[in-house]
């Protein structure tokens, strides 16, 4: 029996394929996870991919994309070949149908493709079970996208403590705090939701999955709904749904590592500081750069015996407190500075062995970053 027949604009199909392909499992021994799930429904075409930890779904609705749906049906096809062949077709409109079981036929002008698929029954479905009590709230897309970029970069890349490879979403009353730390750096951002989120709770989402979500979100004024299930979380905006597994284990309480007192505070132009850190990091052996603050100037330097050395100086807007000299990981500092949403950066020196605190200029900002100094013979 023939199933699945739809006509779609090539541009719309490519856009959807690019989105869902971010979740395709590259090395999976299971063919269904290396594929893209296609389902034609009464008024929409659904594309979905999953690596079990991350699932991305795009629903192209008939009215919005000028689809012509003739027959419903579903199949899973190899992601690699589906992506490549659709990109290379020259026609603006593509017809997709199945004229025999598990064979997807793709027609575009004079091009005719038959692509072998597998049954969709084993494709992992999205989890629609709600937590008890149900937890749902909405966040501005631009705010969520920026917050993920600022915080997720500080998550650990090591699996020694799996929970630290994630970002903590700590919600209570009307606020959501994102926090991540790899033991050397820490990033935190608080988002005010404007709605009561109920009893305080915390979930931990893999940073890798959040990076993929951030790439898909538009930096606009629309909103994303966040729904927490028992062991998963789902983000929904327009035609896009992203579902992630949650990490097991208790995310450590890190409030005690945030210094409350400081010995020095300086303000510096963000663009000047970022340029200087990027410059001296070119020669940074083991990624170590030295910062030396004196009245009116921040001196930066690095050296590698086999290559050479580099120095740079940046004028300070203001400085209060004592002069200091510390060494830090240059690449980590670059990531932090890029995440500061302010024209000027505030640095707080809290001691040679205590974290350097990096903040936006505004005292009331919801962002905070820490980086732990590296002990060297001259700092």
TrEMBL record:
Gene3D superfamilies: 3.70.10.10, DNA Polymerase III, subunit A, domain 2 (3.10.150.10). Signal peptide: none annotated. Residues 139-252 form the DNA polymerase III beta sliding clamp central domain. GO terms for cellular component: cytoplasm; DNA polymerase III complex. This is Beta sliding clamp. Confers DNA tethering and processivity to DNA polymerases and other proteins. Acts as a clamp, forming a ring around DNA (a reaction catalyzed by the clamp-loading complex) which diffuses in an ATP-independent manner freely and bidirectionally along dsDNA. Initially characterized for its ability to contact the catalytic subunit of DNA polymerase III (Pol III), a complex, multichain enzyme responsible for most of the replicative synthesis in bacteria; Pol III exhibits 3'-5' exonuclease proofreading activity. Belongs to the beta sliding clamp family. It comes from Paenibacillus methanolicus. GO terms for molecular function: 3'-5' exonuclease activity; DNA binding; DNA-directed DNA polymerase activity.
